[in-house]
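1st attempt posting a full record on here, be nice pls
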Amino acid sequence: MTEKGIILGIESSCDDTAAAVIKSGRLLSNIVSTQNEHALFGGVVPEIASRSHQRLIVPVVEQALEDARIDRTDLDAVAVTYGPGLAGSLLVGVSFAKALALGLGVPIIGVNHLDGHIASLFLGEQAPVLPYLCLIVSGGHTQLMHVEKEDSMVLLGKTRDDAAGEAFDKVGKLLELGFPGGPRIEEKADSGNPTFHHFPRTRLPGYDYSFSGIKTNVLYYLNSFKGLARTELLKNHLDDICASFQQSVIDMLVEPVERASRKLGVVNIGVVGGVSANVMLRSRLKEICTDRGGVFNVAAIEFSTDNAAMIAMAGYQKFVRGESSSLTLSAEPSLSIA
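the predicted structure (as tokens):
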């Protein structure tokens, strides 16, 4: 085991096959192969995803090592996502990582995908300032964490049904914008009027979230227009509907964060996950930090969606602390962060 630590990270929790190399906390390479074939089905098809991972994982890992100018025999550990995610997809990554680690005689480090997202904040030039609140918001997850120490965090709240990103994707489908819906809705919303229609904001006790109601409300709203009236609505006010929907979702995401910041006295905030790329969400959370004199951190766009750089970073942090996993490590599709 070298003193600096060279970590290979592998990510295959959903439909992106990814590998990255980190040395002494510095990112050397980051390769992501996105499975575009799922767009034909309006969402990720698990069987197609796992088969694609089997086909892609070897060339993706080899490319990551080549770009980093690292030989596999130089690796000090192999970090891999073992949950949560799609069972078949996770199994491909975990099985490959275990075989590679065993063959090289190095430790394997299992990484919770959500811990990886939080670790993405450390890939920038400015590391988050402890303690901080971290909003994890993606297609599959919406959780609010209180990070007290690098290896100590408390789950404050989570979605009780749909994740925010899932709501964006499903509403995008209702509006015939294709998949994924989030970026397309944001693009349309830039030219729309957010006060065109008031979609309800779900408020729950504590810091929990719920996005099934807003999704259903959009469906009912669209269904209240029949035939030509609906066609005209989408033709003339698609941007306005997108802006109104986005405003509602952002309000629901931000309100618990602001409330937790005030109640717990935590002024620093971070946001990670695919939806963190949303400009309005970033702006609203940064405003809270600025008003309270805190530090705002957000992962770079390239690290906001699923990637292996964040898994390698989380693995590196565990490696420095002397943590590793057993070769009995297995995929845990429903793995929780707390």
